[in-house]
Amino acid sequence: MTIKYKSTRGNAESIGSAQAILQGLAGDKGLYVPVDFPTLDVKLSEIAEMDYKEVAFYILKKYLEDYTEQELKDAIEKAYDEKFETSEIAPLAKEKDVYFLELYHGKTLAFKDMALSILPHLLTTAAKKMGENKKIVILAATSGDTGKAALEGFADVENTEVIIFYPEKGVSEIQKRQMTTQEGKNTHTIAIKGNFDDAQRGVKEIFNDGAFNREMNESNHIFSSANSINIGRLVPQVVYYVYTYGQLLKRGEIKEGETINFVVPTGNFGNILAGYYAKKMGLPINKLICASNENNVLYDFINSGIYDINRKFIITNSPSMDILISSNLERLLYELSEGDEGLINRIMGQLETENKYEITPKMKENLKGFYGGYTTDEQTLETIKRVYNESKYVMDTHTAVAYKVYEQYKEETKDTSKTVIVSTASPYKFTKSVIGALSETNEGKDEFELIKVLSEHTGLQIPTPIKDLDKKEILHRTVCEKQDMKATIKEMLHI
């Protein structure tokens, strides 16, 4: 089987993976999806004997067929190296009857490192394969984690510029400082006066603005994306679902073929979609449990089939999920509709004009592999405290949202399947909330002082990437109105 990619909206021809990664977004505003899914064609017991890099090679070779084996191996070696503070890359911790897949041991302390460590290598290789000589401008919106991971991944990568937009008041102090102190001659970090949805909408509009893209081309620049709208971001995330199943099998926690659940805290839907892609490949997954905070548009969608963003945007203590427009949901809709491109066009059109849509009864039926739950800020903090008191395991706010939703799921369904909580960020990224849940000793202290407090309180080692972060020089101070994003890009690139 040859794996090609096509747009969810059907107005573009099928293309190879290198071209899809280089373009980022399809010309008809759709997202690239596999025409057919590859299958897991080795025994799961064989996967159990593979380390992370070997699983990555096995999965990427299936999805990225126009890359040579050597190109993939080189990219994997460069991505999953000593940047990660554990040789396992994605360690699996067991606490009582649940497993935590810790995806935050990379340089930026968040799960985005898993894909954004390898994307620069995939993208620059794709440019060479496609004979693209223009400077590649990586453009992304971030709710806090993608931004730093993209900046870190692309810093000083030859023939690239990376421009990140983030909501001025919608990220934690540590997330903001990670971005604003980023070194690299080709890195640009811009705060916008608005929320993440404003930033994401602006970036999408830029990708789809023909005149602006022509102007960029004439100045020898082309846009590509580091957001999960890029299939090159999504495919590497499939790896850790397959790897985790293998690790559970290797430890004797499950039997070969036994189905398991994954609980994923998600706002933009990319992380949980990677789990769905793993399931489509044949990984024995029972339920994909979608955990939301009070911006619970995905919870409502999974439970009603109605996606409605006509609601108040809430700033929560799990800010990376403060999202109402979930970009990757379009890829799931495409699968739920069994590739009905006309229907996807109508649905996406409704979202633009009415801020809502409802899926068909058949699509609702196809959604049954998902469960949706949500938590309040108060429940999130209570969960962090309770789990720590019971087991001394320290969770960040996003992981706590997932854990609480899993408790709701278990209570409601009585399902006893082995379950993995996808832990998306280090507790050190959200020290104020975490130490606030665990202790009363945060009065008058900023997030940087609380790093030490958290370490002293829990005995948890301070990760190297944030030691002395508050002492680093702030290099990026630009703030712009959301309507001025194009002008700011031109200014950054001296066009």
Automatic annotation (TrEMBL):
GO terms for biological process: threonine biosynthetic process. Keywords: Lyase, Pyridoxal phosphate. The gene is thrC. NCBIfam families: thrC. GO terms for molecular function: threonine synthase activity. Its cofactor is pyridoxal 5'-phosphate. This is Threonine synthase. Residues 4-80 form the Threonine synthase N-terminal domain. It comes from Clostridium formicaceticum. InterPro entries: Thr_synth_N (IPR029144), Thr_synth_N_sf (IPR037158), Thr_synthase-like (IPR004450), TrpB-like_PALP (IPR001926), TrpB-like_PALP_sf (IPR036052).
